[in-house]
Amino acid sequence: MTELTTPPRTWAATPEDPATAKPAAPRPGAPSRARRALAFWLGRPGLLLSAALLAVVLLAALFPALLTSRDPLAGIPGERLLPPGADHPFGTDQLGRDLYARVVHGSALTLRATGLAVAVGLVAGSLVGLLAGYLGGRADDALMRLADVLLAVPGLLLSLALVTALGFGTVEVAVAVGVTSVAMFARIMRTEVQRVARTPYVEAARAAGVRWYTVLLRHVLPNAAAPVLVYAAVDFGAVVLQVSSLSFLGYGARPPQPEWGALVASGRDYLAPAWWLTTLPGLTIAATVLAANRIARALDGEARETP
User: Fold this and answer.
1) Which of 69, 165, 193, 210 could pair with 205 as two cysteines, CB 3.0-4.6 Å apart?
2) Least trusted range by pLDDT, from 57-71, 137-151, 215-229, 279-293
3) Given this model, what pLDDT does residue 189 score?
4) Residue 20: CB partners within 8 Å, gap ≥ 6?
5) What is residue 40's predicted lDDT score, i.e. its pLDDT?
C-alpha cells in the first residue's frame, strides 16, 4: 500500500522593509565590522593624520584652555609683532596679542558657524527634497524650480546678499552660508526619495491605508537619508572656507573677537614685516578644509563599496 504524503507548503517571499529587517548573518571567514573599521583607518596614514588634525581642531573649539593659557584679547605693548618662537608659537600681532591663543579661541567661532550652516542646509534641503520627491506633480515642479534659482546664483554672491540683508555676525553668516547649500541637499534627497518610494514595502504601506506622512517619516526618510548625510560631511570643508571668506570680508564676528577669516584679514597691512599674521591662520584654515575633504572622500568611497 502506497503511503500518501503531502508536499511541504511553500510561501512566496515578501519584500521586507530595510529599516526593520534583521541584518544578514556574516559569511564564514568574512572580516568582522570592527576589524574592517580598523583596517580602514590604519591602512591610510593620510586619513589617520586628517582625523587627528580635526580632533585637535575640535578640542580647541570645545576646550581651548587645554591648548593655551593665554588670553586672546590681552595684548602686551612691549611684545608687538614678535616672530614665532618658544614663548609665542605663532608670534604676536600689532597689539602684542598672542596669535596662537587667538587661533585656538577663534576655532570655536568658526566651527560654530560651520556647524550651524551645515545644519541649516541639511534640514531645510532635506525637507524640500522629501516633499518634492514624494508628492511629485506641481509641488515637485515648484520646489525644484526654486532649487534651480538657488543653484543659478554663485554661492558667495548669494551669501553676500543674504548676510547684507540679515546683518553682520556669526549667526547671520552661518544662516547665509547654509541657504546656499539648500539646493544641493534638496536634489540629493529628492533623488533618493523617488527611488525609495517605488520599493514594494512603501507601496504595500500605501495600499494598507497608512497615512502619507507616516509612510514618509517611517519608511521613506530612514532609507533615503544616508547619501544626504554623506554629502553633509563632504560639504563641511567647503562651508569652513565660505564662512572664513565672509569673515575675511568683515561680515563675521566683531573685533576684537578672534575668527579665522578675520585673523587673516587683520594681518594684511603687515605682510612685509610680519608675514605670520596672515600665513599661519591661513594655513590653519587650509589644513582644516583639506583634512575634512580627505575624510569625507574616504567615507564616501567606503559607503559606495559596502554592499
Assistant:
1) 210
2) 215-229
3) 92
4) none
5) 58
DSSP structure string for the chain: -PPP-PPPP--------TTTPPPPPPPTTPPPHHHHHHHHHHT-HHHHHHHHHHHHHHHHHH-GGGT--S-TT---GGGTTPPS-SS-TT-B-TTS-BHHHHHHHHHHHHHHHHHHHHHHHHHHHHHHHHHHHHH-HHHHHHHHHHHHHHHHS-HHHHHHHHHHHH-SSHHHHHHHHHHHTHHHHHHHHHHHHHHHHTSHHHHHHHHTT--HHHHIIIIIHHHHSHHHHHHHHHHHHHHHHHHHHHHHTT-SSPTTS--HHHHHHHTGGGTTT-THHHHHHHHHHHHHHHHHHHHHHHHHHHHHH--
Share of the chain above pLDDT 90, in %: 47
144 vs 38: which has the higher pLDDT: 144
Higher pLDDT among residues 299 and 263, named by residue: 263
Give, in order, the Cα–Cα distances in Å from 89 to each of 61, 82, 142, 239, 271: 18, 10, 54, 27, 18
Return the pLDDT at 306: 56
